[in-house]
Amino acid sequence: QGRLVESGGGLVQAGGSLTLSCVASDRTFSSHPMGWFRQAPGTEREFVAAISPSGFRPIYSDSVKGRFTISRDNGKNTLYLQMNSLEPEDTAVYYCYANDGIGNLYWGRGTQVTVSS
């Protein structure tokens, strides 16, 4: 069974930047759409961004559009989320996911991002 492992979270001041990474355990994930969700304390998990297997046609939630950039390197089995102009409202646990197209969603365990004001 495939695994996804996130890294790159941490504590940053408002206005700062972080880059999250999500490494997949095997190359099968290179054929799957992948993306990021986040969950703040006391809230539901919300969509952040997604990207097609080819790396084209990224989509973003309105709350991060223009500040975050999703990308992937299929040769390294890695998904990225570049986060700029971070705001305290971006504080959450960030999860990467992969959709195999036949009804299965794979999730990582998450990485904490904390933005101080």
Secondary-structure content class? mainly beta
Count every beta strand, where a strand is a DSSP E run of 2 or more residues. 11
Q: Could you tell me the radius of gyration in angstroms?
A: 13 Å
User: How much helix is in the residues?
Assistant: under 10%
List low-confidence stretches. none
Q: Mean pLDDT, nearest integer?
A: 95
Q: Write down the overall geometry.
A: globular
Quick one: biggest sheet? 7 strands, mixed
Number of helices: 0
- What is the H/E order? EEEEEEEEEEE
| Cα end-to-end separation | 40 Å
Strand content: over 45%
Describe this entry's structure for a reader.
This protein is mainly beta. It has strands at 4-7, 10-13, 18-24, 34-39, 46-51, 59-60, 68-73, 78-83, 92-99, 105-107, 111-116. Strands 2, 4, 5, 6, 9, 10 and 11 form a 7-stranded mixed sheet that branches. The chain is globular, with a radius of gyration of 13 Å. The termini are far apart.
